[in-house]
Amino acid sequence: MARSVPVILPSSLWGVRAVILVLLGTSPYSFDRLARAIDELAGQHSWDVFMQTGNTHYEPVNCRHADFIPHEQVQSLVKDCDILVTQGGAGSIHEGLVTGSPIVAVPRRVELNESQVEQTELVQAMEQTGRLIAVYNVEDLYDSIQTAYTFHPIQGEPNRIPELISQYLKQV
Amino acid sequence: MTDFKRPRVLIVCSAGGHLTEALLAIKDVEMDFDVATFYLPHLRVPQSAKALHFLIDPHISLWKYAVNALQSLWLMLKIRPHIVLTTGAGIAIACALIGKCFGCKLIFIETAASVSQLSRTGKFLYRYADLFIVQWPGLCQLYSRAVYGGCVL
Hints:
- The structure holds two protein chains of two kinds.
- Chain A is of the alpha/beta class.
- Chain A has a single domain (10-171), classed as Rossmann fold (3-Layer(aba) Sandwich), CATH 3.40.50.
- Chain A contains six helices and six strands.
- In chain A, strands 3-2-1-4-5-6 form a six-stranded parallel beta sheet, sandwiched between helices.
- The longest helix of chain A is centred in the first third of the chain and has 14 residues, at 32-45.
- Chain A starts with 18 loop residues before the first strand and ends with a helix.
- The model of chain A is unreliable at 1-17 (pLDDT under 50).
- By secondary structure, chain B is an alpha/beta fold.
- Chain B has helices spanning 17-25, 62-79, 93-101, 120-125, 138-142; strands at residues 8-13, 32-37, 49-54, 83-88, 105-109, 131-134, 146-148.
- The A-B interface holds A 25-28, 67-71, 88-94, 97, 116-119, 121-122, 124-126, 156-162, 164-166, 168-170, 172 and B 4, 7, 9, 15-21, 24-31, 40-42, 44, 57, 59-60, 82-83, 85, 89, 105, 107, 109, 111-116, 119, 130-131, 133, 135-136, 147, 149-153.
């Protein structure tokens, strides 16, 4: 029988603790591809998943979910999760980078009407510097999530943008 | 010591990632600032912000751009900033241009998402920006006035 209410699966009871947080960002476009893929995997593998769906229309049945939750709650979920699965947006990725959680990032694609702007380049660039695991095809999600358990993201180099702005403000 | 008058800055950008990047970009910078963005549930700005203003997100609608332009004009008259700072996207174009007419300086920080080419807003505002910062080095070769600042993420 199909389940109609989201159920929190107590996977930790039999020793398989898999707490996965999914962030789909604030884009006005729907990102059904990722939401559906995670939802199916969560059902198959009894993962404990929380998904912030944002403006995505797909309604998960195997995950706890909400459209938007307060930022402090996002931060504490990111801190406590084992793996952060996210869209390829700067804001969502940043949440994982600050806590050092393993990030699996799936870029939205313009040609699939998932975004107005390209996310692939950012995800590729961050993948090349070892800061996250990139997934371009949702069929690879399961393997990438398994890899993510032993993934240690590399710290980024400090940027000097605040310094550039400070300098400029003193000039004008 | 001469008096360093704190400049008044208007940060205008889309909510979500754009705003996250803008707030990271001004981390520990001494200035008074207002934030203008569109409404999003649970939106929060740092306490150091003087005020939070809302503009309509034009997205891809021309008539919303017109509404946004009127709102922006009102906002700019009310705040009278010295500097407009933005990370995009379309929501910020009107404020940036009105600012230029009023003699404000424009700081544009290209989003981290633009690695090999500028965003549409970036391309458009490049010629008007007084300080144009990019987060990936490759863009400096294409745009000579762009300053590489590293990635805020």
